[in-house]
Structures are given as C-alpha cells and as structure tokens.
From TrEMBL:
Kinase found in the keyword field: yes
Keyword Hydrolase tagged: no
Organism: Pseudoalteromonas gelatinilytica
Entry EC no(s): 2.7.1.11
Protein name: ATP-dependent 6-phosphofructokinase
Amino acid sequence: MKKLLLLTSGGDCPGLNGVIRAVVKAAEHDGNWQVYGSRRAYCGVLEKPNDIIHLTSEVVAGIHVRGGTILETVNKGNPTAFPAEIAGEQVFIDRSDELISTIKQLGFDAVINIGGDGSHRVSQHLFEHGLNIVGVPKTIDNDLYGTDYTIGFQTAVDTATEAIDRLIPTAQSHNRVIVTEVMGRDAGWICLHSAIAAGAEVALIPEIPYDIEAIKAKLTSRFDKGHGFANIVISEGAKPIAGGIVSKQSNERGYENPVLGGIAEQLASQIRVALDLDVRVTVLGHIQRGGTPNAFDRVLAAEFGVQAFELVKQGQFGFIPVSKDGEIKPISLKEATSEYRVIPLEHSLITSARAMGMCLGE
Ligand SMILES: Nc1ncnc2c1ncn2[C@@H]1O[C@H](COP(=O)(O)OP(=O)(O)O)[C@@H](O)[C@H]1O
Ligand SMILES: O=P(O)(O)OC[C@H]1O[C@](O)(COP(=O)(O)O)[C@@H](O)[C@@H]1O
Ligand SMILES: [Mg+2]
C-alpha cells in the first residue's frame, strides 16, 4: 500500500472537510493507498512526537456538511520561516528540508495540501525541493490565480449576503446608512458579489480606490430623492484614493500577513462629518468563514478532492486542480502562484454593477 499525507493550511473555510472526505473515499475506492492527515498543517509533521492521524471512511463519514477542518489549520507556521527560539533569542528558521525528509522517513509517497495563495507559495517551494505534492484551491477570498472558484467562497458570499439582507430592515426603520465590512484581503470578490446580491447602493473594493466625494454625492442624491436608507458594502482591503489600507502587524509569532480591518469605521466617520446622516457599521469578520458549506462548495470540494487524488495516482506532482470555464483541470502550482487574483477592471461584475447605477467610489 502507498501512503498519502493530507493537510489543510491557511485560514479555514467551509468545504475543507468535503475535500478530506473525497480524497479518503477516492483512495479507498482505488484500493492502493492509505490516507493520513497532518494536524495543524505541517505542524503535525514538525512537532515531536508528530501529530498525524489515520483517515479512514469511518473517520470522515458525514464530515462534508461541517464547516472548519477536522485536521485543524494554521496561518502562521511557514516551514521556510518557522518561528523558533535559539539561545533565548526569537528567530525564524528554514525547516523545509527537515520537513521533506521527515515526510519521506515516515514513508509517505505523496502529499495533498488544501490551501490558498499563501499556502501554495509554500507548496511550490517544497515541490522545487523534492516533495511529491499536489494542491487543492481553498479560501473564502477567491484570490488564488488560475481558478474561477476556490472552495469556501460561494458559502462566504451566501453568508455575507444574508447578513446584509438582515441589516436592511433595521437601516430602513431608522433611516440610516449601514456600512458592512467584509473579508477578502486585497481582492473584492466577496464584496462585489454580496453587494450585487444584496442590492447595495455603494460597493468599495480594493481594486478601485474610492473617492469620498463620489460616495457623498451618491448618498446625497439618494436621500434627496426621499429614500430613507443606504446600504454600503466595503472590502476590508479597500482604500481611499488619498490614503492607504487600514491594517496592523499581528503580534502573533510567525503571522506574516497584515491584519486588515477598520476601513468601514473610517468611512463611516467621514460620512458623519460630511453629511447629516446616521451611520452604523457592521464588521462581519469570521462569521464569513463559518457555517455549513453550501451545495456549490460541497460539489466543488468533492470534484477537487477526487481530481487531486487522480493527480497523485498519475504522479503529476507540482499541480493543482482548478475550476476554469466550467471544467475541472490541472494547472501547475507555479502558474497558480505566479500572480494574485484580483477582480479585473473590465470584469462583467464591475460593468454590471456600474450599469445598475451602483457607486463603486469613482
Ligand atoms: N503547510 C503549511 N503549514 C504551516 N503553515 C503554513 C503552511 N502553508 C502556509 N503556512 C503559513 O500560513 C500562511 C498562509 O496563510 P494564509 O495567507 O492565511 O493562507 P492561504 O492564502 O493559503 O489561505 C503562510 O504565510 C505561512 O505563514
Ligand atoms: O483568521 P485570521 O488570521 O484573522 O485571518 C483573517 C484573514 O483570513 C481570511 O479570512 C482568509 O484568508 P486566507 O484564506 O488567505 O487565509 C481573510 O479574508 C482575512 O483577511
Ligand atoms: Mg490567502
């Protein structure tokens, strides 16, 4: 029997468990592979004693309907810059060679890593250093290059849309402006999808730095017409034309990404000062990462899981299945990590939003 190591890395999202189940089921159906899971991404391999569990069909039964990941995950354990303490000093060390040799010593023939852009940059590095690795695209942000959809995105859009829908009646009742801040890092996919789905008047995405004057004009004309409320959706990574993103550095050891959040409050203050309107802010935060995966993400998880296992069987390492123009097909991890996937300015989402009179802060 051959041995396959499975892990989830980066932020969790709905649908991860569906991929785990699909890989295990496909492997059992094939009959030549045993599947194991490293807990907390590669930490399960690097920790002593290691924390690796055998994944059987009994272990994964019914997990595809549950959010999160039964393997747990981390977004601060980069094996190429792993936090350590040497002689009382806090340092970062490259543990990738140790990681690869431990995986080989443990008898694993291949690895499947379910991750996003950050994780697959690590996967590509490990592949170049001799690891037999295949990726699977996940993240609520939908910002992985080469795929139209990542697992978790559609569920996050559903969650954000439902939340905004719930905010509208209260905004209407109080004649308020509501500003909803959604996740997505430097890509506006969640924002623009949920803004269109919920019928927002204003959507502010990182791809289009916003002009506060355009927003003020939109709100003024809307309230002048007698409409009693306004619905603004803003990405956590949005920024004004004169200014930057609102972010801070995490004080968690090994956490590499800037922590985004606070732009909605900044915008709300500007609106309050400029216009005589009542404004309320809701930051959706990790609610967008939770909940049961919707049917789309469950199906995508199943297809990606099966395809990833196929790639392993065929020895096609350094690849990742993607969803492109309605087809599931493999591309290289090198290609998937060659760019960061933002909304192209000519995308139909943007032109449709504009055509319906939605203000994009321009
Ligand atoms: N397999 C892994 N094991 C441990 N930590 C990882 C792994 N892959 C990535 N990381 C860490 O997590 C970060 C990626 O997190 P994040 O950007 O949130 O994830 P992603 O974009 O993959 O969803 C990397 O910068 C790195 O610090
Ligand atoms: O869970 P954390 O560490 O606070 O990270 C929050 C970030 O993770 C995300 O939810 C998902 O991003 P990743 O999929 O890249 O991990 C971002 O939208 C958000 O900025
Ligand atoms: Mg990411």
